[in-house]
Design goal:
about 230 residues; two-stranded parallel sheet; globular
């Protein structure tokens, strides 16, 4: 019997619509505040679904590479377009995926092994170095990882709280800290937790995941072209 609530595909579709409105508001409508506020729903939902993907995937390497390679291709376009060293959300989530898998190896086995714990600590150190240290060292270069270190860690918090009563509060705490580091309207991201609470745990129709991977670079390209025509 199928669980009641919102399945994963519906959640991601809501996030896609929110993200599209956000990017249109930023790129086509002079940073429209209402559209940017609506767009705050996207990150928490996508971050939560990244955690779900890490839980369900049968091939960790393929899951990581799928997100990472698409992220690198998008970065090539960003750099070609305006020589930007900004690292987009797919790179952020690539760090998140690696961190979650390291956490699984370190703390979800019958016996905790020191090498696995050290690897987890090492990956956290890499996260901090890339997301915090490098932007501080290269202030004038424009180097920045989208959503920063707290953006990287949010899917980890979602994963750690998965199936637990305190899970929603753990995510809320992560989003609150994240919001303190960004523009004031980032606080609207907390609204996404209502939708996440309605998640049924069901994935939805198989095969639709490729739509979401293709949509991200496609919608950015279309918005960029629309901006050139306006």
């Amino acid at each position: 019997m199928e669980k009641t609530g919102i399945n994963g595909n519906v959640l991601k579709l809501i996030a896609v619509i929110s993200m599209t409105i956000d990017h249109m508001g930023l790129m086509l409508f002079n940073d429209n505040l209402i559209m940017r506020c609506i767009g705050r729903l996207a990150f928490p939902i996508f971050g939560f679904m990244i955690a779900e993907g890490c839980f369900y995937t049968k091939n960790r390497l393929r899951y990581f590479l799928r997100v990472f390679i698409l992220g690198v291709l998008c970065q090539a376009v960003y750099f070609a377009a305006d020589r930007s060293l900004y690292l987009g959300i797919l790179i952020t989530f690539s760090f998140s995926i690696a961190t979650i898998f390291a956490y699984k190896n370190a703390f979800e086995k019958e016996r905790i092994e020191i090498p696995a714990v050290l690897l987890f600590v090492l990956i956290l150190a890499v996260d901090v170095t890339v997301c915090v240290v490098f932007p501080a060292l290269f202030k004038n270069s424009g180097f920045y990882v989208d959503y920063g270190i707290f953006g990287v860690l949010f899917p980890l918090l979602a994963y750690m709280g998965r199936g637990k009563r305190y899970g929603i509060w753990l995510m809320a705490a992560g989003l609150a800290v994240l919001s303190m580091t960004l523009a004031w309207y980032q606080w609207f991201c907390l609204g996404a937790l209502i939708l996440i609470e309605l998640y049924s745990g069901e994935r939805g129709r198989k095969g639709s995941k490729y739509f979401f991977y293709i949509y991200y670079p496609a919608h950015l390209a279309l918005i960029w072209l629309a901006g050139l025509l306006i």
